[in-house]
Structures are given as structure tokens and as C-alpha cells.
Specification:
By secondary structure, the chain is an alpha/beta fold. The protein folds into two domains: 209 residues, Rossmann fold (3-Layer(aba) Sandwich), CATH 3.40.50; 72 residues, Winged helix-like DNA-binding domain superfamily/Winged helix DNA-binding domain (Arc Repressor Mutant, subunit A). It is 44% helix and 16% strand. It has twelve helices and twelve strands. The strands form two sheets. A nine-stranded mixed beta sheet has the order 1-2-6-5-4-3-7-8-9, with helices on both faces. Helix 2 crosses helix 3. The longest helix has 16 residues. The radius of gyration is 19 Å and the shape is globular. The protein starts with a strand and ends with a strand.
């Protein structure tokens, strides 16, 4: 169980304005893993969507990313199954207590996920999968992750809710394009057309936009050359941003224990020095 004020409470989620006070978790994967990506979509997935999801999970696994989804029919369970099959860590966010699996047909997959990933919920054991719980679950999916990928979605549905929540959290959102007449590509095409999601064709698109290409290079350069030139406060901030693969300013303030005004000044100095860059939503990453 994680309480909001616990040090090991998921840091990405903690910085969301409506984060759960309590989380119940069963699994082996750290909820503060350096790379966490949500894959969501329609419950009525097509072969197009399933094939893309299977390929995407394998590619993301090579990037050492954790896959997060909602354990639902369609794209969600396809992502979880692909993760289990290829040895990629995966976390399922549930709209009920940990004492059951819904839908029950996913019970076997869920048991395997606990061994190489995990299951998480804000609901106590005995809580039913009531209709109103699913939108609340979607905010946890978005809040846990660095990015949300919508594979297939109609004009309305849970995947679009998750995408909208992710945008409100200043997360990167991606969508798989489809033919204009395909029912379950309408939502994705609309997200792309309205600039609420970036077009994705493979994990390479995500890696480029997220700035994961030069991560190892950045770490070695900073560790060997830059740290000796930084003040103790600057070192603290850079080390935190490095370990988180980027962090919002509120998370940096919380971690450092310094006043917001001081952190803002230090961040500006680091940005002018070419060490970090500021992304939309006041999220900071290494250059």
C-alpha cells in the first residue's frame, strides 16, 4: 500500500492535482521506473490495432520501458499479453479491488503480470467494478506514465478520456493514424488533427520525441564532466532530472525541499548553461 506522503509513492502521479490518497499494489516492478508508457485503445480492437500493439510492445521492451494499461478487452489486454510473452514488465490499473480480476477471463494473464510487473488500484478489496470507477482508473494510467499511446479509438470512449487527462497532466500523447472511414481510427485521427496527439508509426517516433536517443550519452557526459562545475543545489536538481528521465518543476521542488523561487532560478541557470531544456508543461529534461 502507498500513502500519498510516502517517499516511494509514484512520483509522476504525486504531481497530478487529483492523485489518489491511497494506492494498493501487488507486483515486482517499481512504480518509479525510469520509463513508463501507457498503451490504450478500444475494446473492439481490429487486427490492424493488435498487430501494431504487438510490434510496439516488443520495440518498447528493447528501450527498457514498462507498459501500463487497464486490463480491459481489446488493445489493453493485447498490450499486456504481448508484454508477458516477450518478457516486458507490465502494470495493469484496475477499477476495483485487488481481490478480483475483471474481466475474469483475464485472470491467468493478470497472475503472470504480478510476477513480472504488477496490478494497482485505488480501491479497497471488495470494491466492485462500477461504471464510475473506470474514468477514475484512466487518470491513474495517465498519471503513472511519461507518455500515453492511443492505438485505436472511436469518436467517444475511455481511450480518448485517458488521452485528454494525459494532456491535462502535460504528458506526451501519441496516436496511431488509420483510414478515414474506419470506425476505430476516428478517435485517433481526431486527436492528431486537433494537435492533441503526435502521430506514431513505431516506437522510434516516441523515442525521438521523448528525447530518449541520447540518454546514455547525456548521463556519461554529465557524470564525468559537468558535475564538478555545478553547485551542490544544482547537482541535486540535475541528478534528480537524470534519474527521472525528466521531471516537472513541482516534482523538483518537492524532491529538493527548496523554495519554488530558488528552484526556478537554478533551473533557469542550468538551462542557460545548456545542461537542461524546458519542455511544455514546465517539464525539464537533460539536453
Amino acid at each position: 500500500m502507498y500513502f500519498y506522503l510516502d517517499e516511494d509513492y509514484p512520483i509522476r502521479l504525486k504531481n497530478c492535482y487529483d492523485a489518489p490518497v491511497l494506492l494498493f499494489y501487488k507486483g515486482t516492478t517499481s512504480l518509479n521506473h525510469s520509463r513508463m508508457v501507457a498503451i490504450v485503445g478500444t475494446r473492439k480492437a481490429t487486427e490492424y490495432g493488435k498487430d501494431f500493439t504487438n510490434a510496439l510492445v516488443e520495440e518498447l521492451g528493447q528501450m527498457k520501458a514498462v507498459i501500463v494499461s487497464g486490463l480491459a478487452y481489446g488493445i489493453d489486454i493485447t498490450a499486456h499479453k504481448a508484454s508477458v510473452r516477450t518478457g516486458v514488465e507490465t502494470i495493469g490499473v484496475m477499477a476495483h479491488g485487488l481481490d478480483r480480476i475483471y474481466p475474469q477471463v483475464h485472470n491467468q494473464v493478470a497472475r503472470k503480470m504480478v510476477e513480472h510487473g504488477g496490478l494497482i488500484t485505488e480501491h479497497i478489496s471488495g470494491a466492485d467494478p462500477d461504471k464510475e470507477n473506470f474514468p477514475k482508473r484512466n487518470r491513474i494510467i495517465a498519471g503513472l506514465c511519461d507518455a500515453v499511446i492511443v492505438v485505436e479509438a472511436a469518436k467517444k470512449g475511455g481511450a480518448l478520456i485517458t488521452a485528454d487527462i494525459a494532456n491535462s497532466y502535460n504528458r506526451d500523447v501519441f496516436a496511431l493514424p488509420g483510414r478515414i472511414n474506419d470506425l476505430y481510427s476516428e478517435g485517433c485521427n481526431m486527436l492528431i488533427k486537433s494537435n492533441r496527439a503526435a502521430l506514431i508509426q513505431s516506437a522510434a517516433d516516441l523515442r525521438y520525441i521523448m528525447g530518449w536517443d541520447d540518454e546514455n550519452k547525456n548521463k556519461s557526459v554529465l557524470q564525468k564532466q559537468l558535475f564538478v562545475e555545478l553547485s551542490q543545489d544544482e547537482k541535486l536538481i540535475v541528478d534528480f532530472i537524470m534519474n527521472q528521465d525528466g521531471a516537472p518543476i513541482d516534482a523538483i521542488v518537492f524532491h529538493s525541499g527548496m523554495p519554488h523561487s530558488k528552484v526556478a532560478a537554478l533551473l533557469l541557470n542550468l538551462e542557460f548553461s545548456g545542461i537542461i531544456k524546458c519542455l511544455p508543461g514546465k517539464v525539464f529534461r537533460l539536453v
